[in-house]
Amino acid sequence: MNLAEHSKLYTHRQPWTFLTIVIILLSVLTVVADFGLAAAAEERGTLRGRVVDGLTGEAIPRARLRLTAYGMTAVADDLGVYAFTGVPVGSTTLIATATGYRDYVQNLEVFAGSQTVDVVLMPLETAQTPTPTPQPTQPQTQPQQPVYQAPVYQAPVYQAPIYQAPQEQVKKKERYPSVGWFNLGGGVWGEMRTWKFSDTQHEYTQEVSGAYGLAELRLGPIAGFLDIKGGQVGHYEERIPGWTLKSSVISSQVVGASLGGKLIISLLPGVEIAGLIGGSGDELSYTIHAPNERIWDGKRVNSEFTETKMRSGLFFGGELALRPSARACLSGEFRAYPNLEMQIHQRFDYLQETSTYPYDEIEWQFTPKSAAEWRVNLELAPFSWLHFKVGYIGSMVTVDNSTRVQVVKITPWSRKEYESPMDRSVETINTLLLGVTLSF
């Protein structure tokens, strides 16, 4: 391929292919959400503790316990220890009984994980102070002795303790309840795109900026997300050793979307890992004016150049999230694109008679050797419903000589299709974003 043939190697994609991917991903997200509802509904916890005498503190063996909401029963062992496992998350009442003791009744809230509830039983009968033998009656001439009144023993009334969840668990439930949450937000972004060819040292740069929106839904261990963005190209530059072209951008448009799901696992308090799967695509289109500086067919031509590129594909990866408190979260994410598709469409419209044709069109279609993306996000929440976000996204697409390219060249009088090897090149994209999110 000559210099013109590998000039501006960016992607263009037929609309029906991207829509097909979006429809497939929406179907996947629906199945993932249904699985998340089932997983969230099946969250269970464990209750355990000891049954002891309220006066002596000794263990009460063989005491019987029951959870009224679920019909679950347990019997304390010889040390007074009991346990309920697989208890559904929610409100229930614990009742404990033992021979010779008053019934114990306590309302409590069951959370996911393990929690301890000790049971204290009070005896039915308590010892009374013995009544002393009355003294014989004295003659009437003697003063009457006072009659001794035995004190009445008042058994203490036992008040069952109200179970309080640990403070850390309360905070987690406040921000990340077991039933899930929904986030809706948006912000601004800016990025630098660079495509460099290692053989010819030919390099292309675009500065792009715009706005984005996002929606996130979590149901138990399952989460889904949708990101969309739009923007414009603000600056275009093309460099070859000894020559630089800075062109004014006449018009431009940038659109993109990402849709996927996560399976989240909590390793430790405040530490989560997740597996990712989904798909994304973006399209960049712009028109520049190159006044007598673009070289085509060995001539300098005064032309307008339009390029549309698009890339899309499925991805998989992982995420690590650190939540030191309910007010902060630092996360890192990696995505790999095993079959990223890239397409390019270029058109040269010549404004003066310096070429044989009034215009030329070239189309490329190929699959890069490798494509990957990594993200780092910091989220701060001054309120439980308001979150500020700052993030970085980097991506790299690598092409080598083994990459085969389908090429179509079009002129007003001909159309030629052929296959050729791709020149070695690397495209890098560095993106910064700032945003705000509302949590429901």
Structure report:
With 440 residues, the protein is mainly β. The protein folds into two domains: 289 residues, OMPT-like (Lipocalin); 97 residues, Immunoglobulin-like, CATH 2.60.40. The protein is built from two helices and 22 strands. The strands form three sheets. The protein has a ten-stranded antiparallel β-barrel with strand order 9-10-11-12-13-14-15-18-19-22. Strands 1, 4, 7 and 8 form a four-stranded mixed beta sheet that branches. The longest helix is centred in the N-terminal third of the chain and has 27 residues. The radius of gyration is 37 Å and the shape is elongated. The two termini are 55 Å apart.
Short recap of the structure:
By secondary structure, this protein is mainly β. The chain has helices at 15-41, 167-175, and strands spanning 44-53, 64-67, 72-75, 81-88, 90-97, 104-110, 113-116, 119-121, 181-197, 203-219, 222-240, 243-268, 271-296, 299-325, 328-336, 341-350, 359-366, 370-383, 386-399, 404-411, 414-421, 425-439.
